[in-house]
UniProtKB/TrEMBL annotation:
Signal peptide, first to last residue: 1-28
InterPro entries: ABC_transptr_periplasmic_BD, Bact_iron-sidero_bind
Organism: Leucobacter komagatae
Segments forming domain Fe/B12 periplasmic-binding: 63-343
Protein family: Belongs to the bacterial solute-binding protein 8 family.
Name of the featured protein: Fe3+-hydroxamate ABC transporter substrate-binding protein
Length: 352
């Protein structure tokens, strides 16, 4: 369920979206998207440049397949219920993340079809059966070959810069808005959600310049502590609240392998990692407890000072790990409260 304050913000989002939609309808007969080519012989529609080239979307899409994290939230908030999504981490027993399910049921009366898992890469047949006119996969590791195969089904927009780098939630919202021919509505959603982030940050000036690390809990017997890199969404949203990433980030980046958005710090080097606060997720509450009681980790500054937040509740962990205009309404107020408590020596380890 959404927090009361979150529901209020969601209603405001819907109200603004409705007004923008009405204006768009009124103007439809006399205007075209900013990116629409006007010359008869030129390519018409909206064109989006990305890591695999460029994608032209000739008409406003109505049947959208939204793959991976984050994108389904944005599509739904921008006025279209996706025709298909993948089941992602943080989904409940129904296969949907709770804030997404609540939103689409309230606004569309039904949930999208869940595309069955494919062992290798996207489920091309499952996607094709949905007859999409647009495929979005901004938070993914879609390869060149996978992109080409998806593009044979429908215009496809993958990641913009690199694998598993979705950029900021604001940029993702604008990119999806452009692909859906809903630039103005996207800007309204960004403004509304940014107001929430800004107002919560303003309530906690103690966050300013506090140094943090976002990571993972230890597995039993583990010798490395997993940590996330600077372009990971959970790192970016924490920075937007006033916190500052550790000075060890350069060394994190240097040790990351391939397209990974995370790396590991050897426990013997952990004391060299500057941090006032540690935020993490784990598979269970027991893993969180095991981590903070580890004889080395327990003496690391943020753990020794009880300045940590560890989520093993998958919905909460995924909501802050992949922030969107919907998941932030659901989770950000609680996340901010948990961070504030941790800086006062009142840590959080939740879950089962």
């Amino acid at each position: 369920m959404l927090h009361a304050s979150s529901r209020s913000h969601t209603r405001r989002l819907l109200g603004v979206a409705a007004l923008v939609a009405a204006a768009a309808i009124a103007l439809a007969g006399c205007s075209a998207p900013a990116d629409t080519a006007q010359d008869t012989g030129a390519e018409t529609g909206v064109t989006i440049e990305h890591a695999h080239g460029s994608t032209n979307i000739p008409e406003k899409p109505k049947r959208i397949v939204a793959l991976g994290w984050m994108t389904p939230d944005i599509v739904a908030a921008l006025g279209e219920n996706p025709v298909g999504i993948e089941e992602v981490w943080g989904a409940d027993e129904s296969g949907y993340q709770p804030w997404f399910k609540d939103f689409v049921m309230e606004n569309y009366g039904e949930t999208p079809e869940i595309i069955p898992y494919a062992k290798e890469g996207p489920n091309y047949e499952g996607i094709k059966e949905l007859k999409p006119d647009l495929i979005l996969s901004l938070y993914s590791g879609v390869t060149d070959v996978e992109y080409e195969r998806l593009s044979e089904i429908a215009p496809t927009v993958p990641y913009i810069k690199g694998p598993w780098d979705p950029s900021t939630w604001e940029d993702m919202t604008r990119t999806v808005g452009k692909a859906m021919w809903e630039d103005e509505k996207a800007e309204e959603l960004v403004a509304e959600t940014d107001e929430l982030v800004t107002s919560l940050a303003a309530e906690h000036p103690e966050f300013e310049d506090k140094v943090f690390v976002w990571g993972l809990t230890l597995n039993e017997g583990g010798t490395d502590l997993g940590v996330y890199l600077e372009y990971d969404p959970r790192v970016r949203i924490t920075e937007s609240l006033g916190f500052k990433s550790t000075s060890a980030m350069d060394s994190f980046l240097a040790t990351a392998e391939g397209d990974n958005w995370y790396t590991g710090v050897s426990l013997e080097n952990l004391y060299d990692v500057e941090a006032d606060l540690f935020a993490a997720w784990g598979g269970s509450k027991a893993e969180g407890t095991y981590t903070v009681e580890n004889k080395i980790v327990s003496r690391w500054n943020p753990i020794a000072n009880n300045a940590y937040v560890i989520y093993s509740d998958q919905a909460e962990a995924s909501a802050i790990s992949a922030p969107t205009v919907l998941s932030l309404q659901y989770m950000l107020p609680k996340y901010v409260d948990d961070l504030a408590a941790a800086l006062q020596g009142k840590p959080t380890i939740n879950g089962e």
